[in-house]
Amino acid sequence: MSVVVVGYVPHPRGRAALEHGVLEAHRRGASLVVVNSSRGDALVDEEFVRGDRLRALHDELAATGLTTEVRQPVRGRDAAEELADVCRETGAELLVIGLRKRSAVGKLLMGSAAQRILLDVDCPVLGVKSPPREA
């Protein structure tokens, strides 16, 4: 079975990545692997999902009707390395990541994590932005 991998953080950009990942997995008839990693400081890392948020994520994934898996590596490596490894291990046909809004200079340079992901991952990468905030 084909696999779609999603890089997830509990922020609007992570929600956007998850939503698009679910859509792509359905479209492709693929399973979904959600990756939420920490460099090793998971207890204080605001981007590492735990407790009620983790249970809610599992419940949300169960409701999709997809075969899903949540991986939470805590190995002292950055997200780009973890995502590249998971994509290789699963033979992913697509990686979905969320992108944050950048300044003019930031747009020129792109985020370092996103840039590394694009360079390190062997499969196609879909970068999505969260919807603009409502006024």
From TrEMBL:
<protein>
    <submittedName>
        <fullName>Universal stress protein family protein</fullName>
    </submittedName>
</protein>
<comment type="similarity">
    <text>Belongs to the universal stress protein A family.</text>
</comment>
<dbReference type="InterPro" id="IPR006016">
    <property type="entry name" value="UspA"/>
</dbReference>
<dbReference type="Pfam" id="PF00582">
    <property type="entry name" value="Usp"/>
</dbReference>
<feature type="domain" description="UspA">
    <location>
        <begin position="4"/>
        <end position="129"/>
    </location>
</feature>
<dbReference type="InterPro" id="IPR006015">
    <property type="entry name" value="Universal_stress_UspA"/>
</dbReference>
<dbReference type="InterPro" id="IPR014729">
    <property type="entry name" value="Rossmann-like_a/b/a_fold"/>
</dbReference>
